[in-house]
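Exercise 7. Given the components listed, write out the predicted structure of the assembled complex. Treat all entries as one system.
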Amino acid sequence: MSSLNKRLAIALVLSAATTLAQARDLTVVGFGGATQEAFDKAYFKPFAAQSGKPFVQDTYGGGLAKQKAMVESGNPTWDLVQMDQNEMELACEQGLLEDLDHKQLKNAPEVNPEAFSTCGVGAFVWSEVMTYDPKKFGADGPKSWADFWNVKKWPGKRGLRKQARMTLEIALMADGVAPTDVYKVLATKQGQDRAFAKLDEIKPYIQWWETGAQPLEWLAAGNVAVTAAYNGRIAIANQQGSNFPLIWQQQLYSMDYWTIIKNTPNKDQSYKLLDYILSSKAQAEFAHAIPYGIVNTKASAALDAKTVDALPNAPANMKDALLLDTPFWVNYEEDLMNRFTRWVAQ
Amino acid sequence: MSVSSIDVLHLDDASLVKAHQHSNRRKRLFSVLLLLLHLAYTAIFFALPIGMMLYRAVSNPELLQAFPRTITALSEVNAATPTLLPEAPVFDALEQDFINAPNIAVIGEAARRLNYENSGYRFLIMSTARQYKKPASDDPLVTTAQQRLAAIDPRWVSPQLWADFRRASPAYSPYYLLAALDLKQTDQGVEAVPENQRVYIDLILKTLKIALIVSLLCLLLGFPFAALMVKASRPVQVLLFLAVMLPFWTSLLARTTAWIVVLQEKGIVNTLLLRLGLIDQPLPMIFNLLGVYIVMVHILLPFSVLPLYNVMKSIPPHYMRASASLGAHPLRGFFHVYLPMTLTGIGSGTLLTFIVAAGYYVTPTLVGSAREQMLGYFIAFYTNTTVNWGMASALGLVLIACVLVIYLLAARLVGIRQIAGLR
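Answer.
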């Protein structure tokens, strides 16, 4: 091999190596389902059309394991990731996420300042509410979590999410604890015992769901009579012909966040996508696609009354609402989740 | 080629022996190389991960990485009086650790670990770390590190915290392994956790019970099936073979989901039984223990049938004819002649099914209720949901240990060579 050929070969190998290192396309990861479809419609498709670059979508079921593994091995395969609030806080503490640089986001001034956290910016406000099968109970359905426990008056299986978070709050509210006192009670051993004792009352009736789509499938199939479910999922099911009522009374609400994985090679591209997501046009599009609360103040102000009424943070829906207490869950989640998992398996 | 063969023809005996040895050595070298390759493969993909898991189950580096000065200071002072508060140098060291932390991630990991000792410590550590990131306030009354820490959170001056801190600080700790056996370390030594927190012993027993029942059911179904496969004519044999192997070649998830369609409340079986008027209400056949047994037996049947078939195929049919000609009842012939010769197949098939069943995860998750979850579910729970990899590793070790014990017991009863299929 002549020296020129050799040099050419080396140059080829090197350029191949660098393209390999940069070859990974921007990867955005969400929790899937109806929400991701709304993301896709409002954010991802228009952004891909605008930027003209290839673009990968993935889904996961929450948790920090994948993020931890990819950051610790120095090979991040995700870029922009949807996370719930307490997992974001935990991941942030463990150094799995980039600190958010507001300067990279042109649309940041339009975003509600409360939506910003060290490692993330609010994706949307969601809510878990009660709903039931109108074919079984008509207009005279259960109206509160206390009614949810009344299996005599409203017989049938109950759907709850298989996790401690939200389930224990629901149990305490059903036991007569005011939403404002829920976390004070739950921070004590007696309060935790009280929540589990309350759950014991209807344990045989509970059918546990693990993904947001399940409770509505079960409701439609007649497997459960009353269930807790995400308001967006109920709205989508109703758009597709169902007629499930949303009981906003004592709703549990929180915010999901967009986060950027630490040391990702696609950081610039991730900020570009995030900036697009935060733009008022894209945010309005999202709120129309699925009724979850948006963070761009300009976009929220311009929404029509019908769309606003369906959002978790509409004033009429906020009566007796419970904001999930993230600091509480960051502290207690592992302990209570362990106890809950054991209790469920017994 | 032709040149060298002509050369060989002209060689004398001594060099012929030499050449033979030479070629033999090359062959041997080749086999050793192949063996080395296999050993390297086993080491990298089997021994290493298991070794790492073993290490994860006892490794406890979080506090040592975040608070090295504090732990050194703690070891130098009043180790004999664990009920008391540590002395001033420890608080000074702690303050230095917070100020000089390399990054928040190290502190976050320590907070997660300490939180296992008592819920709430995570917040204590993280809020203290945040305080030390801010510029210090100039309160003339607060002069010592102890006072500054107590002002941030009074728990820093509680003896309980320091007892927990000491327990969580060694580089290696039996904490996870003990927890996997419903035990915990206290100041008085190892003791069982309170009744309402015990779960893993029950879980281990439940896992072994499900695996045992599944492997026995597989044996009961698989034995006559394998015997039929041996006896049947060629076309029927092919059909039977396909019946076992075809599902085996299909994706596990697809088969499990198919069973949900068949067994659910409005599924094929219930609809049929209802139409026929045999039942008034749909039978609950899925999302319970029955569902787990049905689906697992179906999926694991080939693991029982194939070893049985292998053994039965080699039993000469004239043995049974001989026993009949000597006047033995077919049943007697079966129990005294046929069955003993299939014991190796029974042993290896059942053991194989048992080992695979004990590690099952996807199937019980999909077709069982919350009550039928096996060890695998909890390992996944700690790996993915709480990111407590120490606990996941400890439970994994418990599973390996259980399977190993069963394997050794079986090896004693049936013989290790038979189980490995060497005889």
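Discussion: Residues 12-21 of chain A have pLDDT under 50 and may be disordered. The first strand of chain A starts at residue 26 and ends at 30.
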